């Protein structure tokens, strides 16, 4: 599995589609699924069977005032960490430029 992370609208989906096209099993914007997930480990296990997974970075920017929104961001960040542990390759995309953090691109 390749984990592709980076800021919103930075080119994560485009990279996944370039690598796998219509043939691949990709999960996009999984950071949104983390907010209401009761078992992040199980979700990470499920997602690790995909070819590529994209998740927005949530560690920068303004910290939400709402406790529920802060908890959702914490869960999204934790899910990304769990996925990075399971991934063969981790790529950060910034301004459309992919940088490999772990492993190598196919």
Short description:
This protein has four helices and five strands, in the order βαβααβαββ. The protein has helices at residues 12-20, 31-34, 40-47, 67-86, and strands at 2-6, 26-27, 52-56, 89-94, 97-102.
Write a structural description.
With 106 residues, this protein is an alpha/beta fold. It has a single domain (2-102), classed as P-loop containing nucleotide triphosphate hydrolases (Rossmann fold). It has 4 helices and 5 strands, in the order βαβααβαββ. Strand 4 and strand 5 (97-102) form a beta hairpin. The radius of gyration is 13 Å and the shape is globular.
List keywords for this structure.
4 helices, single chain, Rossmann fold, alpha/beta, five-stranded mixed sheet, 106 residues
């Amino acid at each position: 599995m390749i984990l592709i992370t980076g800021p919103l609208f930075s080119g994560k989906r485009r990279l996944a589609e370039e690598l796998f096209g219509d043939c691949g099993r990709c999960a996009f914007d999984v950071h949104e699924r983390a907010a209401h997930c009761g078992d992040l480990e199980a979700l990470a296990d499920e997602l690790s069977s995909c070819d590529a997974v994209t998740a927005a970075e949530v560690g920068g920017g303004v910290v939400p005032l709402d406790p529920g929104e802060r908890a959702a961001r914490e869960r999204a960040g934790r899910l990304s960490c769990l996925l990075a542990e399971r991934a063969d390759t981790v790529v950060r995309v910034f301004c459309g430029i992919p940088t490999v953090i772990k492993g190598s691109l196919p």
